[in-house]
## 1
Amino acid sequence: MKKSLLVFIVAGLLIIGVVIWITTSSTILKEIDFLHAGIITTLVAFAIFFGIKRFKSEKRKEPVEDEMSKKIIQKTAAFSYYFSLYMWVFIIFIKDRIAIKMDTEEWIGTGVLGMALFFAITWVIFYFKGIKNDE
């Protein structure tokens, strides 16, 4: 029960942090900042979905982490890590070649958010599609 509650607490703190970031920003917000806020909102929605699923499992006295969910997380982590390596190479390649000038911090933030978003998308695909038995 504590782990499920922790997911909701972290999601709430993240929403509060984004709201404070947007409202107290001293500079003019760019389009990329709104894109980042949208991606963060999507990831919070994913975390809430994951927390509700976990909370319902605990209410039914089911094990929170069985072999299948562990295997899905392992496969998702491996696939998203592999993809993120190519994503970072692509980001480094296009950093100086596009007309949009962004600071290095914005590129790094975009890359990290891209990694998190791809992890969430990959988890949803593996969760609903299933994975083959590799053994």
## 2
Amino acid sequence: MDSFYRMKISLGRVTVELESHDKQWLEEKEKTLLGTLLSDPSSVAKLIDKSDNTKSGAGIDTSDSTLTINEFQRKYIAPKNFSRPTIALFLVYFLEKLKQADSISTNDVRDAFKSIAYPKYNTINYTDVLNQLKSKGYLNKIDGNWRLTITGIDYILSEIPSE
């Protein structure tokens, strides 16, 4: 089995996670990212200043862990007519980023659909839905648990309207 490498860099209210099976690629990205950040000290100072609560651009405030799954669904999923796989992707995002679940199983996704009262949630083939997302590069399955990829996170953030 291949090794899987993960790196997390936090500066104030901004966190960047890098994941790869290629250790050399991960190390190159780390150097590039840190080199870019450290080349502009004023930008780093803004990132570290936690007292600045302004939002710029689109995104989901991952610091609000009090948001319930139903509130998340009403705010981010319901306004758009998303397909089942996209809804599943949003729910994995909710579980991983907002509820900070260490592991997300297929049953966790089924329970999330049940929690938002998705019609006929019990007839959905969740393995198939999640594998569709994996084939698009939005999710990875590691040791039997689902994890978002950078592509999956980018897709979700691109679907969130600016506030």
## 3
Amino acid sequence: MKPATIHQVLAIVLMTLSAGAVALSDQVEYRPRIGMFWSPADVPSEPMANLARHDIIVLSIQTLDLHWTYAPWPALSQTIDQNSILAARANLLRIRSLNPNAIVCFEVYFFEDIHNHYPPSSPWWLRDEAGKRVQFWPGAYRMDLGRDDYVMHVARRIKAVHKAVPQAGIFIDNVHMEGKQGWLKLLNELRRDCPSLRVMVNAGWKSKDLEWIAPLVNGFQFEDAVSHVEDDDTEAYYARIAALDKLTLEPLMSVNEVYGPRRDTDRMRREYVRTLVYTDMAFLYADSTHGHKHEWYDLWEVDLGEAMEEIRTPTKAKLAARRFANGTAYWLPADASRNISIQLPQPMQRVRDGSIVRKLMLAPGDGEIVVGVE
């Protein structure tokens, strides 16, 4: 008997994992909780298991061993290396077998690209009046979204990824009003030819004027936008992002990402609570935009279960509470005039410290999560 080839082995793994993933998916309803952008949690763990901690996972195609076919300038490739497809599908199914809720999105560049991904002379780079490429961040330059040939090139790249791994979604960075027609052309092309494709876009610091793109995507990455609202009204910010999220396509996969020091667990808890009470989004508390590195917190392990009530609309100085199958999240806006006492219907465990309480005391600008006692 001849030894099995690598493709035969991968095919067997693929079929095995696929069967397991289907069985698990039938048992678990989708509800996003924790997101991840390029960097898994900084905890000792087997790589696929670490990725699977998260529910919304954004990464490069290479992370799951998917590869473009060779081109002298990498981003000119419009096809996927056929030898990498089975490995990528097996890796994705491994993640889904560990976390049936997980949605994986592969990044494809559009608004900008790496300096050596296209020829320096390419007409697709956006150029200033002097003819020089417009830098977006060190090592990367903006692309000319007004060129239909460039937009269609990226569309073909995205379609190739979708064909290779149809269970994965696509992440596109840096939505800007500049180049709006290019964004609309790209997304309408994808919706026409790939109606089942899940698409997430990065809104960056913005939380306004995104209604034009929301119906064409499944979710936004709000990248520390809560720290960059113009009027410091973060309650209004949560109302805005929740309204935008309602305009997106199913399945909902927006992520409210907040930056802060890892030791500031109070800030993490406060924004996590507001995300749970005011939105149906996933959440991420990360160090910064440089790699989106993050810790994993015990709070994120608490199984609140499915939401039993609709999201709450922020109301000036008024307590907001949202009940889940296994507990309740409470938030008191910062403009409340005083501390309030909340009488619980039965003894509950306060997640912050594990204590069993019958009453909660909340200060303005703070929140708590309680779960049932077994």
## 4
Amino acid sequence: MERQWFVLMANNEQRGPFTDDEVRGLISSGQVGASNNCWAEGMADWAPLEQVSDFAADLKTAEAAAGQQAGGSEAWDSLSRAFGRLKRGVVSTANVAKLKMRVSKLRSTREGLCAALGAEVYQSREALALTETMQRKCKEISDCDTEIASVEQQIAQIRTDAKQE
């Protein structure tokens, strides 16, 4: 006649009786492990499953499977981190490219404004009595200069952040 096993579960709840195969099923499903205590008729006292020869091979198989899952999880985590770095790099590169296009457009706008106003007039704008239209153009040029500096600062920050990752 097959032994009837009783097992102390994780919450110290005594469960059973179980057949050998049912205990093996609990081991393979991860519901119990090497440190869970068990008892069957003929045993002097409760003992950890790892000390019961009937289940030693099953515990090793379950531990090996858990190790493979953990290894697979570590590999996945590593791959996921690498993908995240790659994605952030691509996003950074795209952001820098977009900002460089903005700087290029701003410089082009600035050059057009300077040409329309005349570089000499812009250079000596403080000393001249400019018309309202010329003053507006000077303000637009100055705004372009400020925005170019801001965008170039954003580009520098993105590149610094990318290097730190």
